[in-house]
Each structure stands twice: as structure tokens, then as C-alpha cells.
Design goal:
Elements lengths: L7 H5 L10 E5 L1 H4 L7 H11 L6 H10 L2 H12 L3 H10 L10 H12 L4 E5 L5 H8 L7 E2 L2 H6 L4 E3 L3 E4 L5 E4 L5 H9 L4 H12 L2 E4 L6 H10 L7 E6 H4 L3 H16 L4 E5 L2 H14 L7 H14 L1 H22 L5 E8 L4 E7 L11 E4 L7 H8 L3 E4 L12 E9 L7 E10 L3 H6 L1 H23 L19
Parallel strand pairs: 1-2, 1-7, 2-4, 3-4, 7-8, 8-9
Antiparallel strand pairs: 5-6, 10-11, 10-15, 11-12, 13-14, 14-15
């Protein structure tokens, strides 16, 4: 399930929060994973190895699987002593492929906050400040952060860090703000009768529904707080369970999905299962319009777009082939006139991307279309790009490719809008390049702007085909902006 597969049945689960007086978001590590930050097990592994508690990553993973990771982290902190905050920061931010940026979910939540600032509350279980960065990018001038009881009581916080925060300074140091990491941190917090985090969640549920997303609910304090806060509230708490976060394949996820839903509902939370982290971002963007009369779910809009393209099949084959050739020439100039092959993929609303047009020729019939799966774990970069809503660059495995000419593939997401609902990532442009992925990555500063322009141009093109009646009123945003329309 990705953006073009979110149907009315899925959106119906969120009816309770589509038109509410107040909504509180609580996000976990899954919100920051698409930005390149590690999950809890990976962070624990890095800290255990860096502090010398274990000799290898394999040893760390073995202990994590066999016991509560907080014990291993307690030993790591004891070894690190005064260097603890610095080591946590290094473990959190190491291994990034590029600049650290907010994920589509951060941006979607920030956009929701700017649209409904007086009836939206934001809380995070993460140490990073990506949610604050998303708010700044959305135009929020003043951001008040709560990491302690004093912060919570003295100001109406824009973002509550329920497990503290790690502030990065300009000179590479990391400053600890009440971080909850180890066994002792959790034990001391659970021993408090009325921690500020419990008061925050209780007040949040008094005001309206709560949406917990990106968390596996392993934190004992969060479980304890919600156990105490939920019984006295008449407002629902919803949780999203994402296959990508659980690292399960589709078949296994299908088998355990009923049990996952039942276990969450048995403790008082309404559960919705999704496949990709970006699905949550899409749903957040849909919330402001999902309760309106005449609402059409993303799947319906994707199917309509695909059908209308097929209705103009012969005409668009010529037009799109010429446009793809022009796009390839623009990138070819950046890549030193090395060969570039361009392709347009369009979602059919059936969990597939269809190779709809190429620069090399015209299809004679839709029966010739190649179909590939969509998802974060799709074997096709086009399928991955639609699922993540981010530009992707991958090396080509020569052993699995028929032509030795192509060494890398650049994929660009394309969005469709009907001028009424939020836009949906419904298509992808791919460019096979006769240069290595490392070589293409080194030229990012030169092609990133072109990628944004191509995303915007093709978004306008396919939106005009899919929803011609409203095309003149549409405002198609640039490819790098994933906020709601």
C-alpha cells in the first residue's frame, strides 16, 4: 500500500480525527527513519560498540534480541561517563548519505499545525529536532520546546519532547536536554507519581483524539502513561502500525496483521496497519478534507488519472515521448553529455506502477505496458520512489541488467492534484545514466534544481490530463515540497 492505494475504507478509520476540535500527534522513530536516522536497535548497537561494551555489531544485536536493550544502554552510559551526550549524538547522526532533512511525515504534520495552530498539539519521543525544523520550513516563527517539567509548566510548548532532546551546536558538540535512554532513565521516570509527560498526555486526551505514529510502543513509560490516561478519556487514541517499521515482508505482514490489530485494540488503542512510512504522511495531509462532502480518497484520484491517460493513449504517447526526450537532454548536459534514457511510470491504483511512456519510442497498445510493484521494498527504484515520495539514486547491478551501458538510475517523484484535494504522488520519472551512482551523486548540486523543475512540470502535465476541468485553478508545488495543498 502506497499513496495511490489509500482508499475510502482506510480513510474511514480516521473519521474520528478528520473534523475534531483538537488533535495531538505523538511521533516515534519511524518519523525520522526516512530522513536517515537509525531505529532504536541500530542506535543501541552503535552505542554498545562505540563504548566498547561489546566487541562487534553481531554481539550487540545478539544481546538486543535476547534482552531489554535498555540494560545494554545502561552499561554503555557507565562506560561513556561524561562523553555520553557526545556519543549519543555521534551514534544518532552518523552514516547519513546526505544532508539531514525533515521527512515527509514531519513536513505533513508541520503543515497541519500551520493550518490549525490552535487545535493541534505536537509531541515526539525522538531526540532529534527534525519536527522543529519542519515547523521552521513551514513558516512558524516562534517555536517553544518542552523537555522538562519546568518547560511544560512555564510555557505553552509548540513541541513536547517526552523523552528529552539532543541539541547539536555549531561546533559539532551535542547537548543533553533530559534524554531518556537507559534502564535507569526509564526506571526513575516510572517511579514518579505525576511526571509532566503524563499530565501532558492526559490534557491532550481531554482536548481531543491522539494519533500515535512511528512508534513500536516498546517504551515502558509511554505504555504506563497511556494506561493511566486513556480510561478517563472519552476521546480515542489511534495508532498506526507500519510494515516498513517492523521490517516484515508483505506475506508475513499479512499473516500477523489481525494479531497486531487485536493486541493494540485490547489495550484501548484503535489500530490501522499500513505498509510504508510515507502512507502516514499522506493520511495526515488528507485529514483536513477527508471529512468533507464529496471527498474522494487518493486511490480514487489515482484510478481516475490512470483511466484518463489511457483514454488519450495514442495522443499522449507522442507528447510524452517528446517531453521525455527533452528532459533527458537537460540532464545529459549536466552529466557531461553521457547517454541518458528517460521513462515515465504511472500508478494504476492497483498497487502497481505502469511503465507508460519512454523517450525511445511509442507503445502501440496498453497491453504492452510493464507493471511493477510499489513499496519501500519494491525491487524497482520507481516503486521505491513512489513509496518514499523522495528523489532516489541507485547503482545498477550489471548482473541483473540486460545492457552494460547503464550504471545508475535517478528517479523523481511526480504528484497529481485535482485542485480540491491534497496532491498525491502518483507517478515517477526515471533516468538511466551511463555514469556511476557515486559520480552522479557528486553532481547533485547541478541536477537537484532540474529534478525539482521536472517534478513540477510533469505534475502539472499529468494533473492537466487527469483533471482537465480544474487544471486552470491548480497550484502544483515543486517536487521537493511535500506539504499539504
Amino acid at each position: 500500500m502506497s499513496a495511490p492505494d489509500i482508499d475510502a475504507e482506510v480513510m474511514a478509520h480516521f473519521r474520528a480525527i478528520t473534523d475534531t476540535s483538537h488533535l495531538t500527534f505523538v511521533i516515534g522513530a519511524g518519523a525520522s527513519a526516512p530522513s536517515g536516522l537509525p531505529d532504536w536497535n541500530t542506535l543501541t548497537t552503535r552505542l554498545a560498540v562505540r563504548t566498547g561494551v561489546v566487541p562487534s555489531e553481531h554481539a550487540a544485536r545478539t544481546l538486543i534480541e535476547a534482552q531489554d536493550p535498555s540494560f545494554l544502554l545502561e552499561a554503555a552510559r557507565t562506560r561513556a561517563a561524561e562523553e555520553w551526550s557526545q556519543l549519543v549524538g555521534e551514534a544518532l547522526y552518523s552514516g547519513l548519505d546526505g544532508p539531514l532533512r525533515p521527512s515527509p511525515l514531519h513536513l505533513a504534520i508541520a503543515a497541519h499545525y500551520t493550518q490549525f495552530p490552535h487545535r493541534t498539539s505536537l509531541a515526539t519521543l525522538n531526540f532529534d529536532t527534525l519536527l522543529e525544523e519542519a515547523l521552521l520550513a513551514a513558516g512558524v516563527d516562534e517555536i517553544r520546546v518542552a523537555t522538562s517539567a519546568y518547560d511544560f509548566q512555564s510555557a505553552n510548548a509548540s513541541v513536547a519532547h517526552l523523552h528529552g532532546a539532543l541539541e547539536s551546536t555549531d561546533y559539532g558538540a551535542h547537548r543533553n536536554h533530559e534524554m531518556v535512554v537507559t534502564y535507569r532513565d526509564y526506571a526513575e521516570l516510572l517511579a514518579e507519581n505525576s511526571p509532566w509527560q503524563l499530565e501532558y498526555l492526559t490534557q491532550a486526551l481531554d482536548r481531543g483524539p491522539l494519533l500515535l505514529t512511528g512508534s513500536t510502543y516498546r517504551d515502558p513509560d509511554l505504555r504506563h502513561w497511556l494506561h493511566k490516561a486513556l480510561p478517563s478519556s472519552s476521546n480515542p487514541a489511534l495508532v498506526t502500525i507500519v510494515r516498513e517499521g517492523l521490517r516484515l515482508d508483505s506475506q508475513t505482514f499479512k499473516e500477523v496483521r489481525p494479531a497486531l490489530q487485536e493486541q493494540w485494540e485490547s489495550i484501548g488503542l484503535s489500530a490501522l496497519t499500513l505498509h510504508d512510512f510515507s502512507d502516514i504522511a499522506l493520511i495526515v495531509r488528507e485529514l483536513p478534507t477527508a471529512g468533507h462532502s464529496g471527498y474522494v480518497a487518493p486511490k480514487g484520484r489515482a484510478i481516475a488519472t490512470f483511466r484518463r491517460h489511457n483514454e488519450r493513449f495514442a495522443e499522449l504517447q507522442v507528447e510524452f515521448s517528446e517531453a521525455l526526450s527533452a528532459a533527458a537532454r537537460r540532464l545529459k548536459h549536466v552529466f557531461g553529455k553521457m547517454p541518458v534514457r528517460s521513462t515515465f511510470w504511472l500508478a494504476n491504483g492497483q498497487s502497481e506502477l505502469v511503465r507508460w511512456a519512454t523517450a525511445e519510442g511509442h507503445y502501440r497498445s496498453p497491453d504492452q505496458f510493464k507493471r511493477v510493484p510499489i513499496g519501500h521494498d519494491s525491487p524497482w527504484i520507481a516503486g521505491q520512489t513512489l513509496a518514499t515520495e523522495e528523489v532516489q539514486l541507485r547503482a545498477v547491478d550489471a548482473r541483473q541488467h540486460s545492457s552494460p551501458k547503464w550504471h545508475s538510475v535517478l528517479a523523481i517523484p511526480v504528484f497529481v492534484s485535482d485542485g480540491v484535494h491534497p496532491r498525491v504522488c502518483a507517478a515517477v520519472l526515471t533516468f538511466a545514466v551511463a555514469r556511476t551512482a557515486n559520480s552522479v551523486a557528486s553532481l547533485r548540486a547541478q541536477w537537484a534544481g532540474i529534478a525539482q523543475e521536472l517534478s513540477a512540470e510533469w505534475s502539472k502535465r499529468i494533473s492537466g490530463v487527469g483533471f482537465a476541468a480544474s487544471a486552470s485553478t491548480m497550484s502544483v508545488k515543486r517536487g521537493g515540497d511535500h506539504g499539504g495543498d
